[in-house]
Design a protein that fits this description.
single chain; 350 residues; alpha+beta; FAD/NAD(P)-binding domain; 26% helix; 26% strand
Length: 350
């Protein structure tokens, strides 16, 4: 058999960040992708350091955010485009309790990098419908997702490390770690919601969570921040905005629906007074997990089969550092965080 190092199945954000990490370490690899991505490409790429329903910091954000900034800065230097875009989030408080939570958290040192202290100007801000006031989240950003993935594919193609094909599970020999007769040291599955079809990792509680977004145009909605309450409004180019996103659990369909459109329009009208026009609608499917933690690690029986999946809505924030941690676990025997290791679901394996 011809000898290769690693094969990555899937070129969404998980597969691309993993490829970049392997390339940095001069570890040979190739990527197989079907050429159609229904999650990473349509994602807004919002990086929000807060979880508003609990007014708490996003899980491990103090680690994920600095590494993500560094990762996208290096990609920008290599590929000549800007991918990481700082933008504050203007959160319209949903109720008095949320306002009170913010007041308490803004006094805590570990939150001061993310919650700007409230002022009268925040309470009177006219960018959002301001029943209970609003606050500004600092160190928020968005990734230029489509540009990033297009440039990543171009990089893989130019370096002859990309094969456009749908993976054939029947052609994988897990005992010999081979695919179509070619032997690898590891086969790493970064398949997004398609991981539900994976015969070796389908015991894991991966979910297909459909989300729909709108693209709108408006001369009246503020471009100073990404607005947020029940939905998000993200300024993009040419007076356009991305609005999202709906959640439909255990739903891998990709059709757009009138119900989702009406839901987002209603949420938008309750968030901002600005007039707008809907010009596009898209649907994607997120790979989510019951406990809201990613799925990483070696298969408990076929240990050369590896999974990197379940990044959910925060993939563009988490993936760069998680890719580094996965590679460190594979080649340097560094233990994975127990919260992300698939060992937590060992009892599900039959």
């Amino acid at each position: 058999m011809e000898e290769k190092k690693i094969i990555i199945i899937g070129a969404g954000i998980a597969g691309i960040t993993l490829a970049r990490e392997l390339d940095k370490l001069n570890i040979a690899f190739e990527v197989i992708d079907a050429g159609v991505n229904y999650s990473s490409k349509i994602a807004a790429g919002l990086i929000n350091p807060m979880v508003f329903r609990r007014m708490a910091k996003s899980w491990r954000v103090d680690e994920f955010l600095p590494y993500a900034k560094e990762f996208y800065a290096i990609a920008s230097k290599d590929w000549g485009k800007v991918y990481f875009n700082l933008i504050p989030i203007r959160r319209g408080f949903a109720h008095q309790q949320e306002f009170d939570f913010w007041l308490k958290k803004q006094e805590i040192e570990e939150y001061q990098a993310y919650l700007k202290p409230l002022t009268n100007e925040d309470h009177e801000n006219q960018d959002v419908i301001n029943t209970f006031g609003s606050g500004e989240v600092l160190n928020a950003a968005f990734i230029s997702t489509k540009q990033f993935l297009e440039d990543a594919f171009s990089w893989l193609e130019k370096t002859n490390r990309l094969r456009i094909e749908k993976v054939d599970y029947n052609a994988i020999d897990p005992a010999n770690t081979s695919y179509k007769g070619i032997k690898y040291s590891e086969i790493i599955f970064c398949e997004g919601y398609h991981g539900l079809e994976n015969p070796w990792f389908n015991y894991l509680p991966l979910q297909a969570t459909k989300g729909e977004t709108l693209t709108i145009t408006s001369n009246e909605i503020s471009r100073n921040a990404s607005l947020n309450r029940k939905c998000f409004v993200l300024p993009i180019e040419n007076k356009q905005f991305k609005v999202g996103a709906t959640y439909s659990w255990d739903n891998p369909t990709l059709n757009i629906t009138e119900e989702a459109k009406e839901e987002l329009i209603t949420q938008l009208q309750q968030l901002t007074p600005g007039n707008f026009e809907v010009i596009d609608q898209e649907a994607g499917v997120r790979p989510t997990v019951l406990d809201r933690r990613p799925l990483l690690g070696r298969h408990p029986i076929y240990t050369s089969l590896v999974i990197f999946n379940g990044l959910g809505t925060k993939g563009y924030l988490m993936a760069p550092l998680l890719a580094k941690e996965l590679v460190a676990s594979l080649f340097n025997n560094k233990a994975l965080d127990k919260e992300i290791h698939i060992e937590r679901y060992q009892k599900r394996l039959r």
